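Archive maintenance. Older records in this collection stored only the sequence; we are now back-filling the structure field for every entry so that each record is complete. The fields below show one back-filled record exactly as it appears after the update. Entries are processed alphabetically, and Elongation factor P is next in the queue.

ARCHIVE ENTRY
Title: Elongation factor P
Organism field: Enterobacter cloacae
Length field: 173
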Amino acid sequence: MATYYSNDFRAGLKIMLDGEPYAVEASEFVKPGKGQAFARVKLRRLLTGTRVEKTFKSTDSAEGADVVDMNLTYLYNDGEFWHFMNNETFEQLSADAKAIGDSDKWLLDQAECIVTLWNGQPIAVTHRTSLNWKSLKTDPGLKGDTAGTGGKASETGLPVPWLKCHCSYRLAK
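Back-filled structure field:
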């Protein structure tokens, strides 16, 4: 893989640190009046999703991570694994709860997802830039009950309090 110096770090770049893949979320290059230039970098650890902030000298470098983002279709959940299919080759991949994270709230059958693979294994699942879903029938909220907990359940079970029943909605990232 390619080698990237700290002044090449940009949001979206995936690098290897300590043998694990990280994604650069933000990078600020600092040139102090006295001393060596450095970069303050906000990273997301792709295996766990935790965020880390590191400082790199201008001479520091990191290898590019060998991760692949694939567009896959969500098929079903068997209770332990979420199953996805590649529409071109019809191969199926299974992802565990660690790779899914909070994305399970947004997964609908036949939804297009972006699955990040590292060494052939799914490590992260994100939904596309927009989703289409419907709200299901629930009791209407009471007039003036702005502090109440009532809400309409969506197809995924996620309660959304301000929507009307039986309507289709488009959610954008």
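Update note: Residues 59 and 67 are 24 Å apart (CA to CA). The mean pLDDT is 80.
Entry marked complete.
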